[in-house]
Specification:
50% helix, 3-stranded antiparallel sheet, 6 strands, 5 helices, alpha+beta, 237 residues
């Protein structure tokens, strides 16, 4: 039985490694940095957790083989005791590692996302494009995009890239509510937008004001932040 437990542990570790390799292979297949950003943002924590869960099960099997190696030699009692020990180790490991993955791993993911979002884009002509600043990009966003920012249930953010040699423009849309920030209270990257409301709607000549309500998934810290919405007339291409 100990041999079976150890084989099960090895199998689970191999499965965990395969899960991580599969995820990285999928990331490598995506050439567009925006698409790669979206895939990592939506899937990386989930795949990493699946891999960790496989390792947790492996530890449960391995710990079982060590803890009961010479305690029981035969009988139905022996089977149920080993089963109970295995499940106990898996449950304990589940809660311990789940908290670690949920709290600490998003910091690594955030660094990866920032790198992907700022990686220089290349235009169809093969030229390296420049990412415009918030002030520069306003003129390249049309009224419908600004209206979307103001009226959506969850706000969006736009990045504008320009090929200064050919004038080719690329606009990338990012969903703010899918983005986690560092919580000012606990310091973990578990601070997300939960609700938004437009306090002042932008007009053709006047700027608007958006109120974003944040909440930390770990310490439950809540905070409201104001964001200025550009006047619509300034964003007509």
């Amino acid at each position: 039985m100990d041999n079976y437990m150890q084989m099960g542990a090895v199998t689970c570790v191999v499965i965990g490694i395969i899960i991580l390799l599969y995820h990285e292979f999928r990331v490598m297949q995506i050439r567009d940095y925006k698409e790669k950003y979206d895939y990592v943002n939506l899937n990386e924590v989930r795949f990493f957790w699946y891999a960790v869960l496989a390792v947790v099960v492996a530890l449960g099997f391995y710990a079982n083989s060590l803890a009961t190696e010479k305690i029981f030699s035969h009988g139905i009692l022996w089977f149920y005791v080993r089963l109970f020990i295995t499940i106990s180790f898996i449950v304990i490991g589940y809660f311990v590692f789940y908290s670690m993955v949920r709290i600490y791993y998003p910091r690594y993911v955030e660094k990866r996302l920032v790198k992907l979002r700022n990686k220089p884009r290349v235009s169809p002509a093969g030229n390296q494009m420049r990412k415009l600043s918030e002030e520069e990009e306003d003129v390249h966003l049309d009224a419908s995009q600004i209206a979307e920012e103001a009226s959506a249930v969850h706000s969006v953010d736009y990045d504008v890239w320009i090929d200064e040699k050919t004038g080719h423009k690329k606009i990338e849309k990012y969903e703010s509510y899918l983005h986690a920030e560092q919580c000012p209270e606990c310091g973990f990257f578990t601070f997300k937008i939960k609700r938004e409301e437009v306090e002042v709607k932008p007009t053709q000549t006047e700027a608007g004001l958006l109120l974003k309500h944040y909440q930390c998934d770990y310490c439950n810290h809540r905070e409201a932040r104001e964001t200025k919405l550009s006047a619509l007339a300034k964003n007509v291409a």
